[in-house]
Amino acid sequence: KRAGGNIHCFFADTMDPGALEAIELQRDLRRALETNTGLELHYQPKIDSRTGRISGVEALLRWHHPERGAVSPVVFVPVAERFGLIGALGQWVTDEACRQLRIWQDTGLRMHVAINLSVHQLRQTDLVERVQDSLARHDIAGGRVTFEVTESAAMEDPQASLRVFERLAQLGVSLSIDDFGTGYSSLSYLRRLPARQLKIDRSFVQDVASQEDAQAIVRAVIKLAHALGLKVVAEGVETVAQQDVLKRMGCDQLQGYLFAKPMPARHLQLWVMGDGV
Ligand code: C2E
Ligand code: CA
Ligand code: CA
Ligand code: CA
């Protein structure tokens, strides 16, 4: 199948690479990190649902493999986790995002960036120091950065996660609970997390305009989040109908292909200056 023409379709999103593939991928990923080639961050706007203006971006990692072409993070992030590369990879992402924030700021664009954090990074003892280093190196205030952690990741070791989040909060860095609704958070834990934001998973957003049960869940989640003082972001908004329903329910921010796909940094800047705002 390797000989097949379309390399981009080689890994379906849900496909787990076989053991041999995974070993090859981790070797190539290690090389990509060492030589700093092939890795890139794309940025997807989050839109303030009331004003229609951009309120920040989410950084999404892209890897252009020398032979395979684009490999999805759904494939290579788990490989990095499995082979102990996620610490270095995550560090690269945070540093690159801070570097980009600095470039934008120097050209007059004050941006806020959300970075995805893997559960494995939460166990890294020097995570907070590394984040602090990146902020300092590029002279970026912690308040400009949010970490998105999936609900299930935060739940894996609640006590340890809580300690990390509290130390990040001391740097001014905020926390967002990603993919909300797909895990099993206890509400009392959610209350104790120093999170500012909750992201409703795309699977609910997808059906929010067409199915009553999804609508009921989303409405309840928004109410709950607001009662806890959290802002709510809906991810994966693709249609005007979804946008309308979510706006009516008081969802604070919207993100999805309806507004913009993830894009390279310079495109983002053009997008913000052009019809994006
Ligand atoms: P996620 O954090 O839930 O990110 C949202 C995913 O949905 C992204 O896929 C994004 O491109 C996609 N998306 C955004 N809007 C829409 C939409 O309207 N419709 C549809 N169908 N999709 C939309 P992507 O970039 O392939 O990333 C997939 C996952 O890989 C992310 O899910 C995240 O879990 C992980 N990931 C990406 N970058 C990083 C990273 O830097 N570090 C870590 N640890 N994980 C990352
Ligand atoms: Ca995310
Ligand atoms: Ca998400
Ligand atoms: Ca998701």
Automatic annotation (TrEMBL):
MF-aspect GO terms: cyclic-guanylate-specific phosphodiesterase activity
Residue intervals of the EAL domain: 22-276
Domain of life: Bacteria
Organism, as annotated: Aquabacterium commune
Keywords: Membrane, Transmembrane, Transmembrane helix
Descriptive protein name: Diguanylate cyclase (GGDEF)-like protein
